[in-house]
Amino acid sequence: MHLPKLEIVTGDVANVQLTSETHIAGAQAAGGRGRRGGQTIDVRSRVINRTRVFLKTADGRERDFSFANTTVGVREGHRLSIVLAKGAGMKAAQAVLLHNHTTGQRDEMEAVLKDAVRQKTIGARWRAAIGAVVVFLAYSGAMAVMNAGDTKPVWGLGVALVAYPILWLVMGGIDALVLPQRERQLADRLHAEIEGRLRPLDLKPEPGSAT
Question: What's the mean pLDDT in 156-175?
Fold first, then answer.
């Protein structure tokens, strides 16, 4: 199991932009039993608070990152580290951790972290199909040896068709047991790697410093 590719961007906050978005969704349904032509309307709203941070890194470059509903307080002058990870199934690196060295606060993006450690494997259905082909070939070969060249392909096809759903069930069961355990182990290794790389960068807040 290979760790996702990590990049840690550390710098001082040059600017912060705060925005808020409200998303409203509604559903209309006909009235139920005992209601004459009545209708119910279910309206739900969701507020997303976005924090856009501009970091000035040690090489003089400025990079910006955006976070939704983060619990980390940020203002100009704070020193931040943003951990980016790119897993096997991800098209681009995404932020998995925001760490404020000045205040000691941090926010982990759990959904992105799960994506980063998700194992990319051939699906159980396709592995079962490959296994069924192997069963067909093995059975046909055995029949050819036993019956002087007569492979009895119809029998072999029947055996393969019976074997396919069994193999699919077995492969799916193995994935359900093994993959979550592997992903938990990989997540633990990833956390340890992140902590090891962040520790030398950590700064204790000085007395009277801004928080």
Answer: 88
- Longest CA–CA span in the chain (Å) reads 92
pLDDT value of residue 115: 85
> What domain range is 18 assigned to?
5-31+38-118
- Closest Cα to residue 51, out of 22, 9, 18? 18
Tally of domains within the chain? 2
What would the two tokens of residue 66 be? 């955006």
Global pTM value:
0.68
My answer on whether 48 and 15 are in the same domain is yes
CA angle 153, 141, 145 (to 5 degrees): 110
Could you tell me where the beta strands, DSSP code E, fall in 4-105?
5-30, 39-57, 62-68, 79-86, 94-100
Helix (H, G, I), strand (E, B) or coil at 211: coil
Residue 74 located in a structural domain: yes
Residues 113 and 134 in one domain: no
Mean pLDDT of 163-190: 89
Phi then psi dihedrals of residue 138, to 5 deg: -65, -45
Least confident of 27-36, 60-69, 108-117, 191-200: 27-36
Is there a single domain that holds both residue 13 and residue 71? Answer: yes
Q: Does residue 27 sit in the same domain as residue 110?
A: yes
Q: Are 80 and 16 in contact (CB under 8 A)?
A: no
